[in-house]
Amino acid sequence: HRISQVVLIGGSANIPGLSDRMTDVLRLPVRNSHPWQQFRYDGVEPLQPTEHAEYITAAGLALLRHEELFS
Q1: What is the pLDDT of residues 46-60, one digit of tens each?
Q2: DSSP string covering the chain, please?
Q3: pTM for the full model?
């Protein structure tokens, strides 16, 4: 299997110019992930953009099925 792209997440993904530099060095498409677009907040106040990086691990785990975590 070949790597076809790199996806940046977390606080460091917001460093200006990082994805462009990585694209140049790796010669692969590099993009930032926006996982928060997949969440429904259903009456809970949405996170502020400055809080997104702090909760990215919890958000990723929340997207997994129970079987994937505890098998």
Answers
A1: 888 778 778 877 877
A2: -----EEE-SGGGGSTTHHHHHHHHH-S-EEE--GGGG---TTSPPPPGGGGGGGHHHHHHHTS-HHHH--
A3: 0.58
